[in-house]
Specification:
The protein has 533 residues and is an alpha/beta fold. 41% of the residues lie in helices and 18% in strands. The structure holds 2-acetamido-2-deoxy-1-O-phosphono-alpha-D-glucopyranose and magnesium ion (MG). The site of magnesium ion (MG) has 6 residues, from loops. It is an enzyme of class 5 (isomerase).
């Protein structure tokens, strides 16, 4: 690194005044015009992370399910997972540094404290379909180059594609986009070989995002073996606007362009950067939907894996462990079903896939999904080795190996997720009715409360208990106790300037009332902005 070059480059990316961006649940996010200096500094950071680890790192310019005016950055570690959590503090420190001298001081401190060798690293860059992408990718590349490292522009990709590419690249495996489609498509074909395709095709809401074009490539490769009709496929307009996985999960309404879809048809929805997936079907005569959320996808994935594991020859040592990781947002009925029927271990972590992923690594097969549809399945190296040993003689081992190739183990991936669900349903000869019949969701409601400063709300016990403001948990407890089969919790969002409220109860009316009452308590205890909910 040359300090003179760094200073010169840094001076072109000054921080906007009065704005303090923090790393949050999944990286930095804000209105796009506020972001160039932060994204530039993320370029610096990921170049240093590449030097520290001696491996390729990645950076995706995206704001996922947020409105099109926003943008953001997701940072990819050499494993393909999200940035190592201890480095989030460095990301925040760099983002907050006062212009040139402040930034250079943090860079020098990071080199010293983390004992980073000087040299040249490589950072792979990608972006979604937002109009602000070009300028921000340039800012990221300038940051990487200012460190004397090499930015590789990988262009328009889904977030999980870049995670997958970084992971493969560092493992010395094929890592171009072509190899990604190859892995998913051949894995799927092997997994469903000999099983009849359903008579009805899948209809996918692509959120007018980057997933549309990519899923089309995959569908074309798999045709006629997998029939998929894609809707909301514009890359010009309507990103996440009344459509997409987040809209469906939060609003429980039909997305734009689905009003005339036949009742009961098998539909799926991706989010703006295609790392979340939910399934749904139209219900009733209005725009109501029956949602098949991340919890239900996790259960289906676990059923598929457990069926296959059961058919393997008995293990000489201990049988493989299977665990499901959820957050407090998981519907209580799903958790009960997993305990009572699947009889596998459930772990609950704070929100954010970085937490779920770490917990899932403790099992031979770790299935993790957030209720909003972000998740994947991880397979331990020991299990994969055993499957290879059994492979040639064992149908179930071959099917599991197909699954290992098809599932994006770096991060939740809506494209790989569609194939996972389609393959699981096909192998069981199930449609949506059989999948829905596993358990009935408890009615729930999510609300957001705008407050002056969301950081005044702090939590413990995987975000299920409020620590501060000190009076708030007591008020929530009283509200919960008065609701039939009630459960509620609140936490500050890590991606939006709000406090989130979740409530569950025996009836929809009781869940709605409980959510509203808790939201009012948040508003009064944590300096709510605007009229009380
Ligand atoms: C309730 C909810 O859906 N929260 C989402 C949302 O985080 P918040 O910290 O709640 O804003 O965005 C995250 C990143 O996509 C995702 O991991 C998380 O599950
Ligand atoms: Mg997303």
């Amino acid at each position: 690194m040359d300090l003179g070059t760094l200073k010169e480059s840094c001076s072109q990316y000054s921080n906007p005044g009065n704005v303090k961006l923090t790393y949050g649940t999944a990286g930095f996010r804000a209105e796009a015009s506020l972001l160039p200096s932060t994204v530039y500094r993320c370029g610096l950071l990921m170049a240093m992370r590449a030097l520290k680890t001696g491996a390729v790192t990645g950076l995706v310019v995206t704001a996922s399910h947020n409105p099109v005016e926003d943008n953001g950055v997701k940072l990819v570690d050499p494993t393909g997972y999200m940035l190592e959590q201890t480095w989030e503090a460095w990301a925040n420190k760099l983002a907050a540094a006062d212009d040139v001298d402040g930034t250079c001081t943090v860079v020098q401190e990071l080199f010293q404290v983390e004992d980073i060798p000087y040299g040249s690293g490589t950072v792979m860059l990608a972006h979604d379909t937002r109009p602000s992408a070009d300028g921000l990718v340039k800012a990221a590349a300038a940051g990487v180059a200012a460190m004397g490292s090499l930015p590789i522009a990988c262009g328009l990709l889904t977030t999980p594609q870049l995670h997958w590419m970084v992971r493969q690249c560092n493992a010395g495996l094929k890592h171009k986009e072509k190899a990604y489609f190859e892995a998913l498509a051949t894995g799927f074909a092997r997994l469903v070989s000999g099983h009849t395709a359903p008579s009805e095709g899948l209809i996918v809401d692509c959120a007018n995002g980057v997933g549309a074009g990519k899923l089309q490539v995959l569908a074309d490769r798999l045709a006629p073996g997998m029939a998929a009709e894609l809707r909301n496929t514009s890359t010009e307009a309507g990103l996440n606007d009344a459509c997409g996985a987040d809209f469906l999960q939060k609003e429980r309404r039909l997305p734009a362009g689905f009003q005339h879809v036949p009742a009961g048809a098998r539909c799926a929805s991706l989010d703006g950067d295609a790392d979340r997936l939910v399934y749904f079907r139209r219900q009733g005569s209005g725009d109501e939907v029956h949602l098949f959320d991340g919890d239900r996808i996790a259960v289906l994935a676990a059923l598929l894996v457990m069926d296959l594991l059961k058919s393997l020859p008995p293990a000489e040592q201990r049988p493989p462990t299977v665990g499901i990781v959820q957050t407090a947002y998981a519907n209580g009925a799903s958790t009960e079903y997993i305990h009572e029927n699947l009889k596998c271990e459930v772990r609950v972590t704070p929100t954010g896939v970085k937490h779920l992923h770490t917990a899932a690594e403790e099992f031979d097969v770790g299935v993790y999904f957030e209720a909003n549809g972000h998740g994947t399945v991880l397979f331990s190296a020991a299990l994969v080795q055993r499957l290879h040993e059994l492979g040639a003689d064992s149908g179930p081992a071959k099917a599991l190996l197909a699954l290992v190739d098809m599932v994006n183990q770096a991060v939740g991936d809506a494209l790989s997720g569609v194939l996972l669900v389609e393959a699981a349903l096909r192998r069981k000869n199930w449609g949506l009715p059989e999948w829905a019949a596993l358990y009935t969701d408890l009615p729930s409601r999510q609300l957001k409360v705008k407050v002056a400063d969301r950081s005044v709300v702090t939590t413990s016990d995987a975000e299920t208990r409020v620590v501060t403001p000190s009076c708030l948990q007591h008020l929530i407890d009283s509200a919960v106790n008065a609701a039939p089969s009630g459960r509620a919790f609140v936490r500050p969002s890590g991606t939006e300037d709000v406090v989130r409220v979740y409530a569950e109860a025996a009836t929809q009316a009781a869940a709605d009332d409980l959510a509203r009452l808790v939201a009012r308590h948040v508003h009064s205890a944590a300096a709510g902005v605007g009229p009380p909910p």
